[in-house]
Amino acid sequence: MSLFLLSVIIIHSFFLPGGISILLRAFPWFIPLLIIIIMRFQLIKKTSFKQLRWKYFYAFLLLFDLSWLLVFWGLRDGMNDSLVAIEAMLDILILTWAIALFPNRNAMIAATVPLMLSVCAIRLNAFPQSPLFPVTKLICFVAIVSTGQKIMESWFIKAVSRDVEKKKLVLQFRRLALVDGLTQLSNRRQFDTILEQEIRAAERNHNPLSLIMMDIDFFKRFNDSAGHSAGDECLVAVAQVLTETVKRPRDVVSRYGGEEFVIVLPSTDLQGAARVAEATRSALMSRAIPHPASDVSPCVTMSQGVCQWQSGMSSEALIIAADELLYRAKQAGRDQFKVNG
């Protein structure tokens, strides 16, 4: 904007009577503005204004205004013929600063007030016999810019607030779509996505990947004897045991459906997965959640199928293999885990 306005001023002055001589005499006064413009581009390139301290930013604004006033001072020989144009250019600068800096009231005032006073002084210098118009214009400009800043700031805050609320709603809906509402674990949809991603990563990096499928023993009996509310509490307690036991950042515990849970263990071989299965079995035993109708234990237990992914195996095949091992654990008496191989 500054370069555009400067170009317009130079072109306008060129066509004035004796315009070339005016521009030649005024050229030294253009140099500070050009230096400030170059500094601005360098600051944006290296750091950006956001990283500047406010006191330096205010100093930059005042220097920018002063460099523009030096340009108009250099053109003072043609001032009488180009007064309207100079006033218009200063008005454009004022409006530009007001729009660009409206979120920060102090910065906007620091940038616009010197220009407003300059417009008033230029008009009074040209027409000292008519002070009413420039003074009235100054007052009106101050009032317009001040009230306009408040209005635009309120609009800006409302717009940002609405945008933040929309993002919160989107994140909330996304979370609801990927998290099980009861246990707060990843749900089946999230599990399917994560398993596919980990299989691709295992294929790419040639790292082991294991999966544990688990099922609460005699959970239907639990619901029938203790009630569905107690069954929900049991599921939440089991989920807490699993999340407390499986602690690595990439390990994922999910609710697969009903009383079934799954654990995805990236970079884990079969022996490591077996240790995790035993740790979860021991942690659940220590939690001692009463089970009023179990044939295995007076407390809640789980059967588990532990399977390691093999190269070329799809996610469906891995789930089926782990589910078959889970079935074998149930057939063998429950409250245990079976591993492939």
Automatic annotation (TrEMBL):
Keywords for the protein's UniProt record, in alphabetical order: Membrane, Transmembrane, Transmembrane helix
PROSITE patterns with a match to the protein in the record: GGDEF
Top-tier EC class: transferase
One Gene Ontology CC term in the entry: plasma membrane
SUPFAM superfamilies, per the entry: Nucleotide cyclase (SSF55073)
Annotated EC: 2.7.7.65
Entry keyword annotation includes Transmembrane helix: yes
Segments forming domain GGDEF: 207-341
Pfam families: GGDEF, MASE5
Keyword Membrane: yes
Reactions listed under catalytic activity: 2 GTP = 3',3'-c-di-GMP + 2 diphosphate
Cofactors named for this entry: Mg(2+)
GO molecular function: diguanylate cyclase activity
GO biological process per UniProt: cell adhesion involved in single-species biofilm formation; negative regulation of bacterial-type flagellum-dependent cell motility
Residue ranges crossing the lipid bilayer per the database entry: 25-44, 56-76, 82-102
InterPro entries: Diguanylate_Cyclase (IPR050469), GGDEF_dom (IPR000160), MASE5 (IPR033444), Nucleotide_cyclase (IPR029787), Rev_trsase/Diguanyl_cyclase (IPR043128)
NCBIfam families, A to Z: GGDEF (TIGR00254)
Name by which UniProt lists this protein: diguanylate cyclase
